[in-house]
Design goal:
The structure holds two protein chains of two kinds. By secondary structure, chain A is mostly helical. Chain A has twelve helices and two strands, in the order H-H-H-H-E-E-H-H-H-H-H-H-H-H. In chain A, a hairpin with a 2-residue loop joins strand 1 and strand 2. Chain A is globular, with a radius of gyration of 19 Å. Chain B has a two-stranded antiparallel ribbon. Classes of the chains: A mainly alpha, B mainly alpha.
Chain lengths: 284, 305
């Protein structure tokens, strides 16, 4: 029972991390009808930048901030590149794929192929005890952070003008453009938000999943699974999808360590057979 | 500049050049050409699906890699005959593409790309983790070429012959009524369905046939390289194949040959003075998509009109 509860906590903390990556991913997908395949590479680069800044300054939050700023700027650049293939979704996605390959190679040059771990801040290094479980504070912090971001994004999407514009863009891009809204600016803001979230995830995840050259494609596939399960453009879908994927992966690793990758795929395939647009997705 | 009639002449000319190349070059160039031919088969198989059925796939690297794994596994671990292994490799490719097809053909466009990417990554994950069978990170190693294929020249002609045969078969396939059916689905799936076509079955069969091409390339790669590791199955492999198709021109088959030649030469050139080939490959990808979306051959064909 203790073991089960421990794994459950692991699932939830991993889900919080996945949500950080997948929420931006799904919003971009919903709004712009493209997926940013560079999202995994952004996550990894965000982790590396956080790591370097922390080792230089010793301040965890400064590290995260640096990653957010750097990658939001990269987001502007990427958005600019995508304008060259305006209106052709597939070409835009392929551009992001090429960019992902480039970013990964740059990361490899700058940070090497070794496995790095982002140092955890001093006050989160200890563990908490409740009942008969000892659990690291840091992972609980990630869980809490994920929940805060979820609430923040829900409020942003449902209570602010920006959120209303994004939701309108998800539903009907042409109409809101015709109503005189500058959709490119909304695209840019969403894009930067998604990149910033992925960068934060890289910093936070780098401390308990560690950073290594193929971490980007692993996290990318997890977020793909989240978006495929949750549905395009839905935050609630991303949250639920993250919990499902994280639990399958965590328990899969415990019960079938060699085939854990396979375990997230079965349910995904099953879901697709019945709901091709995911749990909360709308058809394109 | 060129049209379909000229294309035939060009192909015959290229074949003649291909036949005499081994007489004038050293064995390094010969094996580089063999690798190019293998990738040309691989790229053509992707183009069958991307160009004619309108489904751009990112899982062909996984099909290619699993055929290579199967071939080497059968020879080195089970101690089987290389040619039986080759057949097993292609059957493996068929099974995997059948599973992928059944899951993915209902989707289109970006969704198809995503789903095939995820499916391909799962195969990669299995090759990486299922160490008792796949050898994990270390991969599988073993010289599996039979005696008469050992020399670079013999292997070259063997691959060239298979390239010509499979190229002709794929060309015949995409121009057959079945291939035209695929084109019809690319243009409008709902219309084809209302005309009475079983579009899902049509696409699944198209996918499997394209998968056989990728499997053949994977088997040849296993013969060529005598080594397979998770990186042969990884996304990069699919990206490389797709990039060849895009550089050459989607939906032209011949473009895949050009793309494979360009990419393999470029890789060889870049790797001779820097280790940053992946960066150059990514850059080529982005630049192609921005400035030459119809590819080299596609561009030449449209200029004519």
């Amino acid at each position: 029972m203790t073991f089960f509860f421990f794994q459950l906590l692991n699932s939830l903390t991993f889900a919080a991390l996945l949500f950080l990556v997948a929420s931006g991913f799904t919003l971009i997908f919903g709004l712009m009808k493209i997926v940013n395949l560079a999202h995994g590479a952004i996550y990894l680069l965000g982790g590396y930048i956080t790591y370097s800044v922390i080792t230089m300054t010793g301040n965890f939050f400064l590290g995260i901030l640096a990653a957010v700023v750097a990658l939001a700027l990269l987001g502007i650049f990427e958005q600019y590149l995508l304008k060259f293939a305006k209106g052709v979704d597939l070409r835009q996605v392929l551009i992001t794929l090429g960019l992902a390959v480039m970013i990964n190679d740059i990361s490899l040059v700058l940070f090497g192929g070794d496995t790095l771990s982002v140092p955890v801040p001093e006050f989160l290094k200890t563990s908490v005890d409740f009942y008969d479980i000892t659990y690291p504070k840091y992972r609980l912090f990630v869980l809490l952070f994920g929940i805060v971001v979820f609430i923040f994004l829900m409020l942003l999407m449902n209570k602010t003008k920006l959120g209303a514009l994004i939701r309108a863009g998800v539903d009907d891009r042409e109409t809101i453009e015709a109503l005189g809204v500058n959709i490119s600016r909304i695209f840019l803001i969403t894009f930067m938000l998604g990149m910033a979230l992925a960068a934060i995830a890289g910093g936070l995840g780098g401390a308990f999943l560690s950073l290594y050259p193929t971490a980007d494609s692993e996290i990318l596939v997890f977020s793909l699974a989240v978006v495929i399960i949750g549905g395009r453009g839905s935050l609630l879908g991303a949250a639920l999808g993250s919990i499902i994927v994280a639990s399958l992966s965590t328990f899969g690793q415990v019960w079938f360590p060699e085939l854990s990758y396979f375990v997230i795929f079965g349910p995904m395939a099953l879901l697709l057979a019945f709901r091709p647009n995911g749990l909360f997705g709308k058809p394109i | 500049m060129i049209n379909k009639k000229h294309l035939f002449k060009i192909l015959v000319l290229l074949l003649l050049i291909g036949l005499v190349v081994p007489f004038f070059t050293e064995s390094y160039v010969i094996s580089l050409c063999s690798l190019g031919f293998i990738y040309a088969i691989f790229a053509m198989s992707i183009d069958v699906l991307a160009g004619y059925a309108g489904r751009t796939s990112l899982c062909h690297g996984a099909i290619f890699g699993s055929a290579a794994y199967m071939t080497i596994y059968h020879v080195t671990v089970s101690g089987g005959d290389p040619f039986v292994a080759a057949i097993y490799g292609i059957i493996m490719a068929m099974i995997i593409s059948l599973i992928f097809a059944a899951l993915a053909v209902r989707t289109t466009g970006v969704y198809f790309l995503l789903l095939t990417l995820a499916l391909g990554m799962i195969v990669w994950g299995i090759c990486q983790r299922w160490t008792s069978v796949t050898g994990g990170e270390n991969g599988l190693r073993g010289n599996i070429r039979p005696e008469w294929l050992m020399s670079a020249e013999h292997f070259y002609y063997f691959v060239l012959a298979l390239l010509v045969i499979s190229g002709l078969m794929m060309w015949r396939f995409v121009n057959s009524p079945f291939g035209l059916g695929l084109k019809g689905i690319r243009e409008s799936e709902s219309r084809m369905r209302s005309l009475g076509y079983n579009t899902t079955l049509h696409l699944i069969l198209g996918f499997v046939i394209s998968g056989i091409g990728a499997g053949l390339a994977g088997v040849l790669y296993a013969f060529f390289n005598s080594f397979v590791s998770p990186s042969s199955v990884a996304l990069t492999q699919s990206v490389k194949g797709l990039l060849m198709v895009l550089v050459g021109g989607v939906g032209t088959l011949f473009g895949s040959l050009v793309g494979a030649a360009v990419l393999i030469s470029l890789e060889n050139l870049v790797s001779s003075f820097t280790q940053r080939w992946p960066f150059v490959m990514g850059l080529t990808f982005v630049l192609t998509m921005i400035f030459l979306p119809s590819g080299i051959v596609g561009k030449l064909l449209t200029n004519k009109r």
